[in-house]
Structure formats: C-alpha cells, structure tokens
Amino acid sequence: MRQPDVEIYLKDSDQQAVSDWLNAALGSCTPWLQKGQTFKCATANGAPVTWLPNAVGKWHCLLIESEETPWEDDLAFARAAHAALGVEIRCAPGGWQEEEGEEDADRWIKINREGEQEFIWRTA
C-alpha cells in the first residue's frame, strides 16, 4: 500500500547533493525557501518537500508530502537515497499510528554499506 508521504533521515549529506538527486529523480524542483531552520521547495508535480537540517542530532530529515513519488514507501525512498547519495539513511519500517504504542515508534531501519538492519532508535 502506497504511503501518503515519504520521510527519511540522512547522515552526512548536504542539501545540494540532495537537491541534485531530487532534480534527477523527480524533475526540476523549485528553489529552496528557508523559514527558520526549515527549508521547503516543490517537486515538478507540485509535491511539497521539506529539508530539516540536524532534525535529530546530526541527522537531516527529508520529507515529501505526496503519494505521487516514484517510491511506494519510506523504505523504497531510503534505498534509493542510499544508492544515489552513498550515506547512511534511516527510516521507519512502515507507517506508524499512535495506537501502536511508544515502543513501535522507536523501531527503525538503517541502510548503510553493511546493508539493511532493523534497530531501536530512541530519538526523544
């Protein structure tokens, strides 16, 4: 089932490299507009994109608020980002609902040179 948005966390990646990748993957994106610590742009199909540097420590958040992307879910988005950018990526293993409880909210998947691995990431 396609997620209504896709979200990943990137380590050691810069905004320009991410912009270049998004332009190649989604078509030309609008220039980034900064509001406080958050940067926003729109993809060629109008999907809002958010880049939040250092959202969790040294991890940058990348969110596309649309189901109209080449990626069905966060994991597909994370795999594509890792392949294109060569940095460690973290994502939720699937959609999470508040009813699922706090423990499930801490379940994540990391993708790096060693492959994919589920782990507990306590971000709060």
Question: How would you write the strand order of the largest sheet?
Answer: 2-3-4-5-1-6-7-8
The ordered H/E elements are EHEEEEHEHEE
Give the termini distance in whole angstroms: 29 Å
What is the global morphology?
A: globular
**Helical residue percent?**
10-25%
Poorly predicted parts: none
Main sheet properties: 8 strands, antiparallel
The computed structural class is alpha+beta
- The fraction of residues in strands falls at 35-45%
Average pLDDT works out at 90
Number of helices: 3
Q: What assembly state would you assign to the polypeptide chains in this entry?
A: single chain
Counting DSSP E segments of at least 2 residues, the number of strands comes to 8
Instruction: Calculate Rg over CA atoms.
Output: 14 Å
Counted up, domains total 1
Name the features.
124 residues, 8 strands
List the helices and strands and how they pair.
Blueprint: E1 6-11, H1 15-26, E2 33-35, E3 38-42, E4 48-56, E5 59-64, H2 74-85, E6 89-91, H3 102-105, E7 107-112, E8 115-120
Antiparallel strand pairs: 1-5, 1-6, 2-3, 3-4, 4-5, 6-7, 7-8
Would you give an account of this structure?
Helices cover 23% and strands 35% of the residues. The protein has helices at residues 15-26, 74-85, 102-105; strands at residues 6-11, 33-35, 38-42, 48-56, 59-64, 89-91, 107-112, 115-120. The chain is globular. The model has no long low-confidence stretch (mean pLDDT 90).
